[in-house]
TrEMBL record:
Superkingdom of source: Eukaryota
GO biological process, one term: proteolysis involved in protein catabolic process
Location of the Cathepsin propeptide inhibitor domain: 60-119
Keyword DNA damage among UniProt keywords: no
Organism phylogeny: Eukaryota, Viridiplantae, Streptophyta, Embryophyta, Tracheophyta
Family annotation (Pfam families): Inhibitor_I29 (PF08246), Peptidase_C1 (PF00112)
Keyword list, A-Z: Disulfide bond, Membrane, Transmembrane, Transmembrane helix
Listed GO MF terms: cysteine-type endopeptidase activity
InterPro entries named in the record: Papain-like_cys_pep_sf (IPR038765), Pept_asp_AS (IPR025661), Pept_cys_AS (IPR000169), Pept_his_AS (IPR025660), Peptidase_C1A (IPR013128), Peptidase_C1A_C (IPR000668), Peptidase_C1A_papain-like (IPR039417), Prot_inhib_I29 (IPR013201)
Protein name: Cysteine proteinases superfamily protein
Length: 364
């Protein structure tokens, strides 16, 4: 369409020139030529902007087709024009980031039409204001006396000790998912049965925590020690605070929990070599974390204080010149690498990427 307009303008200027060349001065001819060039450039620029905008609109329509129903229910009926503007802003950030030289890539996943504030309020834990391992026994491995070092790499998923990735949805229950996941792995190690345990029981029944508004792993471990944990079939997840049920069967229990020595990736390595470990991290660089797709999530993209999200370390390894942790998240399989993240290891002066070594703990 724009090309036709430009051809029309060219024909018009040629006609004017041919019919007026006898009386037209050279200065007039030059002026009209410049005017034609300017018109062509403006039309071309307008065309590029229109095409770019249309492409983004088409991209958003495809995104809605895939992720529209995965958004929090309170956002599904909101003004799509406003949502598109948020999506456009996020996509521009994602595309720019991916065009640069980074160790990981981003993608417009199910969170792409949410603002940072909306995302933080919906999916992240409250910032840690107390020691989340106070109910756990402190342990420290005497590495110099260790019988043998941990294996170079380990993935508890390959050993059958990790259940499928779950989705916490519109509920700040990452603490409950991470707690349940570590108890699932412990139960497997004890019984060789891999059970999906109830996150909702922790959200609804653990009065020492705040349900969908956040919580602490050590308090959740203490609750499970006293009350046990049902299966997710017996007590299904609803992603909201509710009255605690009383008619459920205890499928798993623990004797307590232990906390790993802080600020030591070597101590965390020895712990993960024995079982998956609950950790608190900081996802303050929210866009890089929430849009993470694949690759090595690096230290420079995260700080080590103001921890606000709980995940599980389910393994570790080495990739080329870099060491990494394998992180299991609770934002569904559409996030990251099928729900997992490869996070850089042995960096940040022992504190680890995103403060991963600040408060590690595990059930016993």
């Amino acid at each position: 369409m724009e090309a036709k307009k430009q051809n029309t303008y060219l024909s018009l200027y040629c006609l004017i020139f041919m019919t007026s060349k006898v009386t037209m001065s050279s200065s007039t001819i030059i002026f009209m030529f410049i005017l034609f060039i300017m018109t062509t450039v403006v039309c071309s620029s307008s065309s590029n902007i229109t095409i770019k905008e249309t492409t983004l609109e088409d991209r958003y329509k495809k995104w809605l087709g895939r992720y529209g129903n995965l958004r929090p229910s309170n956002m599904r009926n909101m003004d799509l024009k406003s949502r598109f503007e948020i999506y456009k802003h996020n996509v521009q950030f994602i595309d720019k980031f991916n065009s640069e030289n980074h160790s990981f890539t981003l993608i417009d996943n199910q969170f792409a039409d949410m603002t940072n504030r909306e995302f933080k309020a919906t999916y992240l834990n409250h910032e840690i204001t107390e020691n989340p391992t106070q109910y756990c026994e402190n342990v420290s491995v005497d590495i110099s006396q260790a019988v043998k070092p941990p294996p170079v790499s380990l993935d508890w998923r390959k050993k059958g000790a990790v259940t499928s990735v779950k989705d916490q949805k519109k509920c700040g229950s990452c603490w409950a998912f991470a707690t349940a996941a570590t108890v699932e792995s412990l139960t497997f190690q004890k019984t060789y049965q891999l059970l999906n345990l109830s996150v909702q029981q922790l959200v609804s029944c653990d009065g020492s925590n705040d349900g969908c508004k956040g919580g602490y792993g050590d308090k959740a471990f203490e609750y499970i020690k006293k009350n046990g944990l049902a299966t997710s079939d017996d007590y299904p997840y609803t992603a909201k605070n509710s009255t605690c049920k009383s008619n459920f069967s205890k499928a798993a229990t623990i004797d307590g929990c232990k906390s790993v020595e802080s600020h030591s990736e070597e101590q965390l390595l020895y712990a993960v070599a024995k079982r998956p470990v609950y950790v608190e991290i900081n996802s303050a660089f929210i866009k890089q974390y929430r849009f993470y797709h694949r690759g090595m999530y690096s230290c420079s993209k995260c700080v080590v204080h103001k921890l606000n999200h709980a995940v599980v370390v389910v393994g570790y390894g080495h990739n080329g010149s870099s060491d990494y942790w394998i992180i299991k998240n609770s934002w569904g399989e559409n996030w990251g690498d099928d729900g997992y993240m490869m996070m850089s290891r042995n960096v940040c002066d022992g504190q680890g990427t995103c403060g991963i070594t600040e408060y590690p703990s595990y059930p016993i």
